[in-house]
Description:
The protein is an alpha+beta fold. 53% of the residues lie in helices and 19% in strands. The strands form six sheets. Strands 1, 2, 3, 4, 5, 6 and 7 form a seven-stranded antiparallel beta sheet that branches. It is flat, with a radius of gyration of 60 Å.
Amino acid sequence: MQIRASIRTKMLVSILTTVVIIFTISIIVSKKQYNKAATEESKRLALNVAKANTSEIEKKIQLAVSNITTLASAFSKKDAIPENQWKNIYLSMYQKVYSDNPIIHKLWDTWEYYEYDTINNKTYERYGIRLYNKNNLVRQDIFHNNTNDENTIYSESREALKPLIHTPVNIKNNELIKQVATISAPIIINNEFAGIIAAEILIEDIQKIVKEIRPFPNTHAILTANNGSIIYHKDSSLIGKDITIAFPDLSEEFTLSDKIKNGTEGIYSGKYQKKDITLTITPINANFSSQPWSLCLVIPTKHLTSVTNKTTIYTIITNIIGLLLVTIVIIFIAKYIKNNLNKASETLVLLATGNIDNAKEIIIKTGDAIENIADSVNKLIKGLNTTSEFAKQIGEGNLNVEYKPLSDKDSLGNSLLYMRENLKKANKEAEERKLLESKQNWATSGLAKFSDILHANNDNIHKLSYQIMSNLINYLDANQGALFIIEEDYNKNKILSLKSAIAYGREKHMKREIEIGEDLVGRCAYETKTIYITDVPNDYINITSGLGTANPGFLLLVPLSLNNEIFGVIEIASFNNLEKHQIEFVEKLGESIASTISNVKINERTSSLLKQSKQQTEEMAAQEEEMRQNLEELQATQEEASRREHELEAMLKTLGDSAFIVEYDMDGKIIYANEKYAGVLGIEHDKIIGMNHADGFDFNKTQTAGYEYFWNDLKKGISKKERNKLIIKNKEIWIEESYTPIFGKETDKPYKILKIGIDITAEIKYNELLTKLKTMEEAITYDNNKDNVILIDKGKINNDLISEKKTDFNTTNEHITTHNKKTQDNNELDSKNVDSELDYSKEDESSHDIITEDGKLICWHDKYEITNNELNEQHKQLIELANILYSSVANEKSKKEIKDNLRNLTDFAAYHFGNEESYLEEAGYNNMTIQLDSHKQFMTLLENISKALKNKTITDYSNIMNDMKVWLHLHFSDIDKLYDGIV
């Protein structure tokens, strides 16, 4: 809603309102700034007061600390004083310190007994002295085995190895309950902890200091220990309580517990009991403790800003007086302005209604802005009259009438000039539009006409070319034209062949083929760009008529291209200039011609390909029958090769179960070895690769001397047989070896050596034993000191030797028997009446004794225990790793986690089996076949799991996990019991 009022009233209201707002904002801003400055100054004052009182408290504590640390430092030099002297000296120092410091309630020390009494050297006891006041008398005690609080303080000091101030506690002193704080310092002798010295100080004086702190009204102080325990508060019932319990709201608002524990210093603002408060926190460090106390001051914020409220009232009164003076001055000025503006207003009202003729000039001579307004109104009257006349002329269609705007910024005048120019431009554009539409209609009609021509002649390239050029020359009103199409010559090179020429002389017809890139036509095809020449050379082309010969002035060459492929070139010659729309028409037409030529060529090529395809089909049918016969013969050959390969693999597997198979390169390094060879060497299979042929062999002198000749014969392709002795872990192994050089397909030189070896150790040992027995039976001893010959009782010798070698003989014979039986009966062993066919794929009758729990594969059972504790622990670890693998499989963990758990189980199993086999060998346990086969079967089980994971062939692990569970149960409960008590 618009408010109707005089200009004088509006000036008064607006100016006074503005002044009042400015004064109000000034007061508010000034008050805030002053309050802020006053509050900050008050906070600094509160913090300085807190720091001053903190410093005073630190001095009182530091006095006691200095005495304690001085005594501790003195005690560290006790070794320099005879023992019978330093005990009396230090006791007198205690009494002096205790009497000179009334703040100390109790003074005591605790020593490691072996430091205080070097004679008895009781390392399990501690020794101590304490001085305290009881019934106003100084008492002295000597004590052993420190207990209660002294033990806690002792352990904290021994761990910190520096002076500490401990949490205050309540004590009863002369029937009064008082608070004391313990200060301790470690005694370090020869860089080792020897004991502590401590003092309990009364904190009444400290509480009095805190009680007197009050920088502002209603301020209350809180003194706390590092753990938040209240040391002082005006409410004595809160002393000793945790600050988070006594003041939960205050502690939560300011996180007091963390700030006190960390020794944080600062000033904070917040809410407490629905009131604004300011909190100061200053730590009491005493320059030695990592667990400082803290002094907190809680100050009502309103007391910090009370001084600024009075200053604000004085400022408001001063501003009101100034406002009244400003109002009087504004009234006088408003009246003067009003009278002069009324004159200008009357004239402007006439101009606003369009009554220019009755508007008269204003005469005001004030020499100020109002006079400038009058002059501007007079100029406006004159300008409007001129503009009105100009608009009238434009309306009558006189677009060339002269007119000058009042100024560069005369919007109305400039708009009229802009309107006149737009009218001129619109007339011109209308004429150009008519011409453009005529050209577009010409091009559209031409494209429609030639479209019919292209569709009607798309089966004959020569007829199509003639129709295109004859109609195009007439449509363009040109003089000559030619159509060139891309074709291949007898060398399969692409050329431009002239298919149609209209109105060309005989000279032009003589050259019907043009190479790409040659002349203007070849260049147009090469660059695939339109060429338009307005100054044709005199010797390029002539146009002949009955009146004579003349040269065309303009030449147009347009490429026939489609999808970046060139199909030909159109050449147009004319006496007249070809306009832009005509050239664009020919270019668009060129795309349609290229498409039609492409289709014609495709149709011709398709027809040719159909004929060629029919011929090839007949040839392929004959070849297919021949190939079918060849495939049948090849399939029969492959089946025979597969059968032989399968037989060879079976033979090699059978051979590998009973013999050592090793392959060497021509330098004698191992490039392949079967598992049996790795087992006899006691080396991991992967680590065998790269070993030298001679590693581990114990050659005699003859073998050593002829080793080079032996290997040279192998390189020449000569097979060898050897009987060699290996020394593995101080154990002899005899091998019957056959070396065969392996030749390449197309060479007469071998590229590797194949060795097949048989373990004949048992046979050698057995023969050696029989030889020794035979030799002993024939042994005869002569007595050279007598004339007669004494014959030793060879029967007794035989009995003694047989008794001595009985164990070795039986063991060797049993090993030979077991080895032969294993080969014949497919791994069936008979030892100690135990069935050694290690088939763990199914549970046996004892598997119901297996103990399991949720999430576990198998649990440890007392029946698995053997007498060797080390192997027992390894068995438990094996079960634990199996349970971890089972859990990751059952819970469908990631494949990476399952692989890691499988790797851990495999590595530990290999370590354990090697350790167990070493124990059996050292103990002379010769019947290890059952254990070795059992170990090998478990490793094969783990290898199958690994292959399943790698090949992603197993989705249900329940069967293979059950096999592992049964193996663990049978191996620990039956197999390992065979050697229990031996190792």
